[in-house]
Amino acid sequence: MRRRTGRLASATAAAVFALGAALLTPLPQAAAEPARAPAPAADAAAAGAPAAVADPVTDHCQGQCADILPPGQNGNATLADILGNRLFGTFPAHASDQLGRYDALVAGHGGLTDAKLSDFFNDASFGVPADQVESVTSPRDDVTITRDKKTGVPHIKGTTRYGTEFGAGYAAAQDRLWMMDLFRHIGRGELTSFAGGALANQGLEQQFWPSAPYTEAEYEAQIERIRTTEGERGELAMADAQAYVDGINAYRQKSKDGRYFPGEYVLTGKIDSITNVGEIQPFKLTDLISIASVVGGQFGGGGGGEVQAALSLLAAQQKYGVVKGTEVWEAFRQRDDPEAVLTVHDGTRFPYARKPAQPRGTALPDAGSVQAEQLVYDRTGSAGTNAKAPVTAPEKLKPLQGLFDDGVVPPGSLSAKRGMSNALLVSGQHTASGNPVAVFGPQTGYFAPQLMMLQELQGPGISARGVAFAGVGMYVQMGRGQDYAWSATSAGQDITDTYAVELCEPNGSPATKASTHYLYRSVCTPMEKMERSNSWKPTVADSTAAGSYRLQVWRTKYGMVTHRATIGGKPVAYTSLRTTYRHEAESIIGFQMLNDPAYTKDAASFQQAAHRIGYAFNWFYADSRTAAFFNSGSNPVRAAGVDPALPVKAEQAYEWQGYDPVHNTAAYTPFAQHPQSVGQDYYISWNNRQAKEYDTAGFGFGAVHRGDLLDGRVKKLVADGGVTRASLTRAMAEAAVTDLRGEQVLPELLKVLRSAPVTDPQLSTAVQQLEAWRAAGSPRKETAQGSHTYGNADAVRIMDAWWPRLVEAAFKPGLGDGLYQALTASLPTDESPASSHGPTGAHSGSAFQYGWWGYVDKDLRQVLGDPVQAPTPDTYCGGGSLSACRDVLLTTLKAAAAVPASAVYPGDDSCAAGDQWCTDTIIHRALGGISHPKVNWQNRPTYQQVVEFPSHR
Hints:
By secondary structure, the chain is an alpha+beta fold. 32% of the residues lie in helices and 17% in strands. The protein has a ten-stranded mixed beta sheet with strand order 3-4-5-12-13-14-15-23-24-26, covered by helices on one side. The radius of gyration is 28 Å and the shape is globular.
């Protein structure tokens, strides 16, 4: 088996081992062991040099597939590794060796050619050349795990299906054991009991568990449902999952016995560093359901938020009256804005979640009556506080004391609003080769280790290389097959609805907002109480003082209670119901099909496979002949007249068609009604709208969207013709360092400002600086690699200071305080890389998904008298007067220009005040004991493929 020890300089290694010797026996001896501990005789490398694994199938990519996943493949670190990283900045092997190439594309994309792609990406060919084999491990006779020297990616080859999946689980544990353990506890709402009571840990389990609370029997029922209702593929999927779990547990036990398990288990008090007493709890099949609920909820959800939408609608109606207020609200809601960038841009319509002409059953609350449902009860000790009570740590471990005091998953890392993924594909008629070209990948945040891991799987009925979320990696979830590649972006269409259940008392007495019974089809029915009781005590890693609490969620047949209110004076509970609840892992069937070369052979079979995925994703495909797109998700068929953007009465007449509350099933829109396309000239996606009449589930899909950064560039490439892998990658990389506000909105801002001479010298200088930045392409990029200074730095600073000021000054006077506040609660005004207040927090990479750029753009064009499709009923900047709007912009611009860099960029634990470049930088958020250096800001997929297949089976 493979030990993941670091390659430390001898002096450094000696220092680390000296520090740990008293506590980590037998670390010095273990460090001297070969890269693999003794393995069964089947281990091909045991007797000598590693043997190459022959390519098991014809690789039709012929060296033209590439990928990257920073910071590195290895996400496990022993206690010695963690000490070395903390004290000396060293890394375990393959923990950080993809980060430099990923970062270098910022400076290197300008001169990029196909031949130079290997400077920035891995070779994603199948197999490992003989001279590139680093290790070969055989945890069973029927599987080998070959890792390459450059990246350490596992290439898993099985002679049986069980062996292949066992190897996948074994390799996943080698690379992500600690992280998988974290996520099964997050999904189960047990993170604090497992990893410590830090406030961020409390917040994380409070974020995820309420949306997917289950009993153990309900976890098991989901497994049984897949096994018994999905035919042969369902049985096969659960057999594969069991083999995967068996592989995880095999490595879990061997690493524990061999004392090379992740060091976080020592630091959190799970295993004694001296005696090795303690246990890593075995993984169960139900843990995969728990992990799937976190992954699916984070990246594949859609809809919800109808209560907040109702509050903003009420605020609009209070401001303007019911009729005009509704018109104003709809203008900001932008369900089907005709100016929005689309993935399917050929005019094809896919009506879904449309606003009904005559809404029925809408359940708006009484003004001022809405209260969020209480989640946390019976707090003791440090619960809800940041109280610390450090333990007395062994002297040698003091450098690691408090490692997780701010949470084992840093605050904000798994925000419900996280920018996710992009895709650029060009069909063969517009490429130099005549074959489609794709540059695509998921934008899943920056973690150390990453949530996903690279792997190659070759076995009976499985042939793929790519990424899978650790812990549910039975199959490659995004990657490439023998002659095709696929990827996804989060779609976010509406698969979650909010119902208003009327409260009652079983004895017939008047209900109150605190009642725990509700009317279900005229019967007063008790809610189900779902609970988790957690307690914690301080450890070396987390000094949070001892404490405990109880999490409580009330579950109804219409989902979980999220708020309470009154409607017409009657008490109600608002509930949230998503189609994928109780079906967290059923998407496994679609992934199984995508990995099966006998099933996925062309665009049509790809689309059918993607249709089996219940979560809301946009799926993209390329082979040597065509590019294609399909939007997946269990889209419910709603009752006629129901407005999906707002809460609805919990009555049978307004339920999903065919709704069965026992199994949470309903009628779903058929394959043909999902946005899809084959052979369009090009495709782009950056979590933008999919197609005409496919209404959005949230705010912010209007005239300006970050998808425009891709669409304009790819459209020009297609018009010019001769697209290559390098030119499409350049388009992505250029968009990745471009400020959306500068490219898409600044031209209108400047047009208003220049509508009369700018006579104030200070303002004239600021306008000229902004014009020069716009002429340069509005980048946020170093003047030269390593300079850590932005070109047009003053213009970038001015825009960062100006944007929030100009938005508020332009809109708040017209909207009024109440409506402005309600609308900003639905959609924040800004999400620049420097906006640490934004939904994804500081140093997160993803930017410009959520903001008021589309609102500002439309409003300024209305002020200027330029053409506007779907204008708002009122014009806000300056009340619609060009001169008054110009005064607003000049006043706010002057104030912004005067703000020093130290105030615009106030600094944090990682950056000094005023350091503009550092404020933008990406910092990988540690999910364990290893941290990584900051890198240049890029608004780019975390895992990314560049593919062009020259041949096909």
